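Example (one chain per record):
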Amino acid sequence: MPISFPKKLPEHPCIAIVAPSGAALDDTNVEAGLQALRNAGFKVINYYQHADRFERFGATDQERLIQLHAAIDHPEVDIVMALRGSYGMSRILPDIDLSKIAKSRKWLVGYSDFNALQLAMLAKTGTASLCGPMLCNDFTRAELRPFTQVQFSQALRECKTHLEFETDQSADLNHEGKLWGGNLAMICHLLGTEYFPNIEGGILFIEDIAEHPYRVERMLLQLHMAGVLAKQKAIVFGNFSAYRLAPQDNGYDFAAMLKFLRTIIATPIITGLPFGHCDDKASLMQGSTAHLSVNGTQVILTAEY
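Predicted structure:
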């Protein structure tokens, strides 16, 4: 299936903020985030109202679905950005009009739980989307992170990604492949469904938060046993943080987990990608053709779209 990329943006794009997943935390200054986007030159339409939150979600399932479709239907909206991740996309995914989103060629921007929609778009319609910042907390923080903002601007304005970082183990690689992935829990969650992309010869990037190394290992073993990893040219680890080791781990930690996985997974495992639930966040186009080169521990990842 050929990949369809978002349309070229006007000089001052319009961003719609939607909350298909979790509600903003009570101490989050949503208005400050909206103003930060305006200060960056964006027009902003906000569909999220904190008073309308339902349980842990941004609104009821039906209301969140309506938000998303309204943003897609709005003629002025160029970019649809998620408020935040958490959980909730899975509850509305079967009812989302993926075809309508694909035809709109609007930019879908977010990560974490939002990746479920992005992966579904890639699988069902061949539509690329941007795994990148969300309103919370990439734009609501007191001081915006320059790296995140530059990466986001480069993706929107220049339609490219250029990253240089360091991996934990020396390698000599030079691969080109379709860039895909995102949140590891979401990837495994969609495995075996119609929303899981069937990618061969790809560069799979992954990240997650608050997942103990044994759970990360278990999810990767699931993908390995399903035959997904053997079809990839490389697996690139982003940020994995906010987990707690315990005394009973007895020396088993993230490094031990990586060492074990490398003994059973033939696909090269690269670490250090600045992406995920972290302050300095890359913007990665889901479905783009990327070039990955590793010389010793130095990694360069580039893509143009």
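Caption: The first strand starts at residue 14 and ends at 18.
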